[in-house]
Amino acid sequence: MKSVILFCLTAVVILITASCQSNLKGKAMVEKKLFGKLSDGSEINAYTLKNGNGMEIKIINYGATVVSLTAPDKNGKYADVVLGYDNLEGYVTDKSYLGAIVGRYGNRIGKGKFKLDGKEYNLSINDGENHLHGGTEGFNKKVWNVVKTEADETAGSASISLKYISKDGEEGYPGTVELTVNYTLTKDNELSINYSATTDKKTILNPTHHSYFNLSGDMTKTILDNELMIDANKVTPVVKGLITTGEFADVTNTPMDFRNAKKIGKEVDADYEQLKLAGGYDHNWVLNKHQEKIFKFASVYEPVSGRLMEVSTDQPGVQFYCGNFLDGSITGKNGVKYAKRTGLCLEAQLYPDSPNKPEWQSPVLEPGKVYSQTTIYKFSAK
Ligand code: GLA
Q1: Does 140 sit in the ligand 1 pocket, CB within 6 Å?
Q2: What is the pLDDT of residues 120-130, one digit of tens each?
Q3: 161 lines ligand 1 (CB under 6 A)
């Protein structure tokens, strides 16, 4: 009799434990934890978005930065697939924009100059003689205000909205811009990034997201065997300093042709002027479907883990950067030194130097208008 009771009790305990565990796994949530303190004492928090399937994305309110993102491999095993640092200090001293939102203007503006209504503006110069990714202290170095976190258990999604107010004159830009970035992790293992912004004076805006992905989850490996597809017939060629010429160049029969997926390493070191100028891929592709509201424009497949990332946007261009400037000098998560081409970025945006290319889609934002952008990174395995 005793042993029967004991058996029943054990069975009940096992059942309760199992149901608690499955509840835990199945629950979408946002968890907040202190990440670190800045030298002025202000606290930076980490917010972990969980969708209940096992995928987790951690975001800090410094630079609105994605510090980790787990994705499943073909055996259902989750691993962190973005480069980053173990602590806040790493992000404060970072010069590579790991995981951050960059702005006001992502990418380069030639000599940091542009005109609005005949008035010339001079932005801070931080990349040779040019302006890059918002200047000396861009949005990636700012403390953002967390306006909302939300978990929808029924939908299996979790989200965070962060806001940054960029003052009139910051880095040379006119107008006070209020930018809100919403990161949502969906039940379908998508990271959806939604931007919305307003200004009080005519200005320019072109923010983007700068995660470096390494789908192998092993950051000591390069991304050269990853198979990349970019749905683009043309690129925007550059001159020295990586400023666009204003032309569109056909990718046919060049190393820039990714219309059929190919290994990034296949031609990255080819004897091809555009690649030599940039030290590898670091160019903007003219996306074929950019007349559509939101469209898939790229995929990255890592053959060993089977991880697949598909990227969609409503933007006309994407900067594909294959981590040429990583040189082992930065120590990332788990003490790993990030060597050349151990991460790749797909930064959806307007064509670079658009403030000086009137024929291209304009980055101008006027008072009373709302800037918006949606870019989605979706993770699966095959
Ligand atoms: C972008 C640029 C690169 C480089 C990285 C950051 O992708 O296009 O040239 O500046 O950011 O290191």
Answers
A1: no
A2: 999 999 999 99
A3: no
